[in-house]
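seq:
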Amino acid sequence: MHPSRLCTLLLLLISGAALAQDDMMVEKAIAEPVTRSLEGIHKMTSGTIVQTAEMLDDAMYAYRPTEDVRTAGQMLAHIANAQYFFCSTAAGEPSPNEVNIEETATTKDEIVSSLKEAFAYCDGVYAAMTDAQGAEARSMFGNDLTTSGVLAFNTTHNYEHYGNLVTYMRMNGIVPPSSQQ
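struct:
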């Protein structure tokens, strides 16, 4: 077969596979609209937080506006810890995380890696969740919530601390990722 025809055939196969995957994603979103919406918001939030973690330099990791608050690095490590808490609660399983990331991850590389691993764990929880499972009750902080409520709380928590990080960045003349897009 002529190389140009082979390339054309490969492109058609790849684009056909991509379209089939897109169709499956659309079908899943239609069948599970609440969970897929929560998952989509989680992906936006986690992406912005990882971008923040990657773009900050070591000086910003150590930055805190006052001694009464976490450093930027501690806040990012706290977010990583929280992913395991919220997502394992939503999944109804013990947390796979065995360390306090905020106390053990001290370098930018360790924190970025921990964040990515924590978000990957949550990605799996979100991907496996159905709307029916999202309606199941879970206990969190002594309150009964739905699983979807726990996942929504996770996103709220992420945005709360991303808002803190935005303030830290703005105080240092840094344009946050969410304003760069």
